Amino acid sequence: MHGNDNTVGVMSVEKDATLDARGLMCPMPIVQLAKKVKELKSGQVLELLADDIGAKEDVPAWCNRTGNQLVGHEEEGKLFRFYIRIK
Amino acid sequence: MADKFCMVVSEGSFDKAMMPLIMGNTAASMGMEVHVFYTFFGLKLLKKGIRPKLPGMWRLFTGMIVKKMKGLNIPAYDEMMKQAKELGVNFYACSTSMSIMGVKESDLIEGTKILGATKFLDLAADSKVTLFIG
Q1: Within 13 Å of residue B6, how many CA atoms lie on the same side as its CB?
Q2: Which residues of A touch B74 (CB under 8 A)?
Q3: CB B109: neighbour CB atoms within 10 A?
Q4: pTM of the shown model
Q5: Test mutation, A22, A24, A28, A63, chain B, max B CBs within 10 A
Q6: A8 in contact with B at a CB cutoff of 8 Å?
Q7: Residues of A carrying an active site annotation
Q8: Number of domains within chain B
Q9: In CATH, what number is assigned to the domain containing residue A63?
Q10: What CATH number did the domain enclosing B26 receive?
């Protein structure tokens, strides 16, 4: 678990939906993420699973750029989990 | 207003075909407004049913790389093009290149707009990011 300003413990995050982007390479996880976020309501939390190494930097950058909030993230071997609160 | 992202594509090989789509689809997914201008050899990438090949002698290995990418779950050129359309990426054909290359409006992929350099530069002048793929 990394700690930075907008990150809280993953255990305390309740998710409303999950997007499994495992097995997809850049930019597909981000393209699917953007699509999925449109289906969700403001304030809901999306869990994103990805194993593309680029996702580690890409997802926080996407959140920052689009104004969605990355509320938690963790690494489990080659798997990245991100928790994103929809703006 | 969304940030604008403009690209010029002047080569028609497989690598030059994929790059603007990867960049463009990513930018559109980041909420940017994307404009891609195809000129010279890049123009053929906007033709219906095109299957771009690797450049030069490497063209013989196109099938191999396409297969490899498929194995990695990377969408093919036509699939990425379809995705770009869904994401609202704007595609433009250079009017002068169309005359030089003998490309007709009916040869172009549905939704392609035909522009001159002026309109494209007008878009580019307001862009946060501009890239040249060539």
Answers
A1: 15
A2: 25, 28
A3: 17
A4: 0.85
A5: A28
A6: no
A7: 26
A8: 1
A9: 3.30.110.40
A10: 3.40.1260.10
Residue type at position B131: L
Cβ contacts (< 8 Å) between B30 and chain A: which residues? 30, 34, 62, 65-66
Range of the domain at A43: 10-81
Average pLDDT of B68-88?
95
Domain of residue B104 covers: 4-133
Q: What is the DSSP string of A39-66?
A: HSPTT-EEEEEE--TTHHHHHHHHHHHH
Judge whether B109 and B56 are in contact, CB under 8 Å. Answer: no
Is pLDDT at B80 greater than 70 in this prediction? Answer: yes
Q: How far apart are CA A27 and CA A38, in angstroms?
A: 17
CB environment A18-37: b (16+ within 10 A), e (fewer)? ebebbebbbbbbbbbbbebb
Tell me whether residue A1 is in a domain.
Answer: no
| Closest Cβ opposite residue A27 in set B25, B72, B73 | B25
Q: What is the tens place of the pLDDT at every residue in A6-25?
A: 445 566 788 999 999 999 99
